[in-house]
Amino acid sequence: MVNIIIKKTRCFVIIIALTTLYLSVAANSINAKLIDRIVAIVNNDVITLIDLNSALQPYLQKLESSGYGAEKKKEILSQLTGDMLNRMVERKLTDQEAKRLKITVSDKEVDSAIERVKQSQLMSQEELEKALKDDGLSFSEYREKIREEILRPKLINQSIKSKVVVTDSDIKKYYEKHNQDFAGITKYYLRNILIKSEESKDQSKKKIENIKKRLDGGEDFKAVAKAESEGSNAEEEGDLGFFDWETLSDTIKNAVQNLKIGDHTDVIETDQGYQIFYVENIDNQNSNKADSVKLDKEVSEAISKRLYDDIVETKFREWLDALRAKSHIKIML
Fold first, then answer.
1. pTM of the model as a whole
2. Which residues of 280-319 are buried (b: 16+ CB within 10 A; e: fewer)?
C-alpha cells in the first residue's frame, strides 16, 4: 500500500514538473511574440520589428559611442528608425518587382563583386571580415547587401535605362556650365613587380627587398619586372596601364603621390603579395580645355555618364513613387 502511494506521489510530482515546464515554454513563446511584431506590410510581404532592429544595429553601435546626450540620441534614433523603415519598404518593393520580372543575381556575381572590392582596397578576406565586424556586419549579411546592390542596377536597366537618352546638345550645355570641373583630370600610368608570399613570407620579402636595391641602383624597371615579377603581366614588363587618380586605392595613392615620372615606390605589402609600383607616365589634363569649344572624347564621355546617372536616379525615384502608389503599404510602427 505504501509503495502504491509513493508511486502515485512520484507520478503527481512528474506531472506537476511537466506542466510547469510546458507553461514556462508557452510563456516564453508568448513573450517572444510580444517582443517581435509586424511594423510594416508591403503587399504580401511583412517587415518585423526584429528585421528593423537588425538593420539598425550597425548604426545603433555608432550612435552609442557618438558622445551625444540622451535627448539628442533619442531624436537621432527616431529619425534613423523612420528612414530605415522607409528604405526597407522600398527594398521590398524592388525585390517584389525584380521577382515579378524574374531578375536574379547569382552567387558567382556576388563573389566577383566582392573580389573587386578586395582588390581595389588591397584587402585580404580576413581584413574585409574584420572591417565588416567593426561596422557590426557579418560576412553573410554583407553578401546579401552586395546582392541587393547588384540587383537594383539590373532592375533599373530593364525598367528605366532603356528609356534614358543623353544628346550631344545636353553634353555641350552641361560642359559650358561646369567646364572647370574637367580642367584637372589626372591619370597615372603604372607598372608593377609582384612577388607572391604564398609559401614563405620571409623569403618573398627578402627577394623583393633585393629587387628594390637593384632598382635603387639604377637597373631598368621594365627589364627587372620581366625577369623577376611573378605577376600575370610579367611578360608585358609589369604593364598595368593608365588609372584615374580617384580609382586608385589609398595605399597606392600614398605610395605614388609624391613620385615623378620614372620613379618607383617602396615595397608595399598587399593581399596578392609584395609589390613595387613604377610611374611610367602622369597625364595631368589641366590645360586650357575649359576654354575650348571642342570637347575631347574623354571629357564628353565623362559628362555623358554624369548626366545619364543623374537622369537614371531621377527616373528611378519617379518609378519607385509610382510603384508605391499602386501598392498596398501599411506602416504600424
1. 0.49
2. beeeeeeeebeeeeebeeebbebbbebbeeebbeebbeeb
